[in-house]
Structure formats: C-alpha cells, structure tokens
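Researcher: Structure prediction, please.
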Amino acid sequence: MHKPPLLLFDGECNLCSGTVRWVLRHERGPALRFAALQSKTGAAILDDFDLPRDVMDTLVLVEGGRAYVKSEAVLRLARYLRWPWSWLRVGRLLPRAWRDALYDYVARHRYAWFGKSPVCLIPTPELADRFFD
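Model: Predicted structure follows.
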C-alpha cells in the first residue's frame, strides 16, 4: 500500500509553520500530508525511525518508508513543488556537509529571527484532512 509523503515540522516555530503554508501554496498537487513534531503522530514517527523526540530543529520528510532530515528533507520536498520552485533540487550539487551546516545555522536562529508561537498551525477546514493531530 502506498502511503503519501509526510512532512513533520516544528509546530511552535513561525518559520516552520510559514514554510508549510508556503508549500501548500506552491505544491504541484495535494500529495503531501503534515504533522507537527510535537504531535502524537510526530512522536510516533520519530520513534519509528529512531529519531530523537526532544530535537525540534529539523524538518523530517517521510517518503517511501524512509525518513529524511535537514537539507535532504528540503531537497526531496522540492520534488513536490511547481516550477520554478522545483529547481531547488539543484542544491544536491553542494556537499551535504555544507548544506546541513547552512540548515543548522538557520535552525539555531529561527526563533530569534522569526519567533515562536505557543499554538501549532491550524489548517483551514479544506486542508484539515491533510494534517494529523
């Protein structure tokens, strides 16, 4: 059975929630599902892939029975976006260490730069079936 790809994000991070809203506007089709890392679904997925529950500094894309984190998750996510955003996949040309270093830098500063919300992203009724918990 094919499971749709699932994007886990920090539900308290304004940058992360904004990224989810941006993806929803620019995706090619409604292929992705979403869940906050802090949710029951997020915790269960993290456990399934032996990823730490207490680290909220990465997007996690679960696709094809595998979990991708940091820059790899972002680059794989680009496959679901319309042109011109799908071109972001060319980031694969950079060494993963460089990509992840940039990702980690932004992740370390995301709350200071973009803020933190005590409330997770609440989807519209039209999008509710694409979000877990």
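Model: The chain has one domain: 6-127.
Researcher: Thanks, that helps.
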